């Protein structure tokens, strides 16, 4: 299947192509990608210092999440995997809110109950990340079907890596959405590695896209590092969905330039030449080059943005370091409308031990 690409590595557009993206959307998307990259770098440093427990990076894949989020309606639901903090930032989540989550402190929306990088925000229609791979795929299909039943002109988009297509949840979600013509967008970030397992060892098909065809689903394969290809494919998919034509599968070809997580050493299973080759295809630099060529960006704006982001994230970290941990009672809250006596008894045991220690 052909891979759709509008912009090459130098930020040059294909002959005859004119972007259908508003300039302010493009600039906001670039800022979100830059913020996501800087936040990831800082969080990895904090993890290495022992300040936080875990971190993941979206280095080299920022365009997938941000380009997709930019093409959606704010009312559409997003089901992220864990490398989509850029989508959260594009929708307005602040660096401070994100850092509070990474610290798991009292101002974390999840009250410290989730691992770092397992973010979410109800107000922004971004469903909290779940560690088990692929579980959000049938959830998104169900959400999309519910919106169809309620005659809402909205869509649900779920992100996942190509490794998730080896899970049964992928096939169940795809088939459910296809049969019921649910307005679901299945967005696969094919970053070529499921932790240390190369794509070629995961399945025998030629990529993920043929799986969509097998389920009778409208399918696109795009250059995941090309902002315009991602944006326009998602915009097209959303239109297809809200017009009642059923789900869409998008395979975005990209590359995970960093480690799988701070618990991983990618040098043990992939050559540095491969990583260096993908560095030339950097999605952030590619979009910046286009904007500079189009007169929308320059070195001064770039310097100002990077300084603004650094100051914002540094301040957020300083605030998080001084923020208290969630109250102990939060361990047993939000499960039942009223905390059962048996759970309160357990809480009291923990509280007394916590106080005595």
Structure report:
This protein has 357 residues and is an alpha/beta fold. The chain has two domains: 23-326, Thiamin diphosphate (ThDP)-binding fold, Pyr/PP domains (Rossmann fold, 3-Layer(aba) Sandwich), CATH 3.40.50; 327-357, no CATH class. 45% of the residues lie in helices and 9% in strands. The strands form two sheets. The chain has a five-stranded parallel beta sheet, sandwiched between helices. Strands 4-5 form a two-stranded antiparallel sheet.
Please give a handful of descriptors for the protein shown:
two-stranded antiparallel sheet, globular, 7 strands, single chain, Rossmann fold, alpha/beta, 2 domains, 5-stranded parallel β-sheet, 12 helices, 357 residues
Characterize this entry briefly.
45% of the residues lie in helices and 9% in strands. It has helices at 23-48, 62-71, 85-90, 95-103, 136-149, 168-180, 209-214, 227-242, 272-279, 283-293, 299-322, 341-356, and strands at residues 77-79, 156-161, 184-190, 193-194, 197-198, 218-223, 248-253. The protein is globular.
CATH fold type of the largest domain: Rossmann fold
Q: Give me the CATH superfamily of the largest domain.
A: Thiamin diphosphate (ThDP)-binding fold, Pyr/PP domains
Number of strands: 7
- The total number of structural domains is 2
| Overall radius of gyration | 21 Å
Structural class of the helix and strand makeup?
Answer: alpha/beta
Separation of the first and last Cα atoms: 62 Å
Major sheet characteristics = 5 strands, parallel
pLDDT averaged residue by residue: 96
The CATH architecture of the largest domain is 3-Layer(aba) Sandwich
Give, in order, the helices and strands.
HHEHHHEHEEEHEHEHHHH
Number of helices: 12
Portion in helices: 40-55%
- The neighbouring-strand order within the major sheet is 1-2-3-7-6
Strand content: 5-15%
């Amino acid at each position: 299947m052909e891979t759709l690409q509008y912009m090459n590595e130098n930020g040059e557009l294909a002959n005859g192509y004119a972007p259908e993206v508003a300039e302010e959307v493009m600039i906001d998307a670039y800022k979100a990608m830059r913020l996501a990259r800087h936040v990831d770098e800082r969080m990895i440093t904090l993890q290495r210092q022992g300040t936080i427990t875990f971190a993941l990076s979206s280095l080299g894949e920022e365009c997938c999440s941000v380009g997709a989020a930019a093409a959606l309606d704010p009312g559409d639901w997003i089901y992220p995997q864990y490398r989509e903090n850029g989508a959260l930032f594009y929708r307005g989540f602040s660096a401070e809110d994100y850092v509070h989550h990474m610290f798991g402190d009292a101002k974390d929306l999840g009250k410290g109950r989730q691992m770092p990088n397992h973010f979410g925000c109800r107000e922004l229609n971004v469903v909290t990340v779940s560690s088990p791979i692929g579980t959000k795929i049938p959830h998104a299909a169900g959400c999309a079907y519910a919106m169809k039943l309620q005659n809402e002109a909205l869509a649900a988009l779920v992100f996942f890596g190509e490794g998730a297509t080896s899970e049964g949840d992928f096939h169940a979600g795809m088939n459910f959405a296809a049969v019921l013509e649910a307005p679901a967008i299945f967005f696969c970030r094919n970053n070529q590695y499921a932790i240390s397992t190369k794509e070629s060892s995961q399945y025998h098909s030629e990529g993920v896209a043929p799986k969509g065809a097998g389920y009778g689903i409208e399918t696109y394969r795009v250059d995941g590092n090309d902002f315009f290809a991602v944006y326009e494919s998602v915009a097209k998919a959303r239109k297809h969905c809200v017009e009642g034509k059923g789900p869409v599968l998008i395979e975005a070809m990209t590359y995970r330039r960093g480690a799988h997580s701070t618990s991983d050493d990618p040098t043990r299973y992939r050559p540095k030449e491969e990583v260096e080759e993908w560095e030339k295809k950097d999605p952030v630099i590619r979009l910046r080059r286009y904007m500079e060529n189009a007169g929308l960006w320059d070195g001064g704006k770039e310097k100002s943005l990077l300084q603004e982001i650094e100051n914002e994230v540094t301040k957020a970290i300083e605030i998080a370091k001084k923020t208290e941990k969630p109250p102990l009672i939060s361990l047993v809250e939000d499960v039942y409308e009223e905390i059962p006596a048996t759970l309160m008894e357990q809480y009291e045991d923990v509280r007394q031990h916590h106080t005595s220690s």
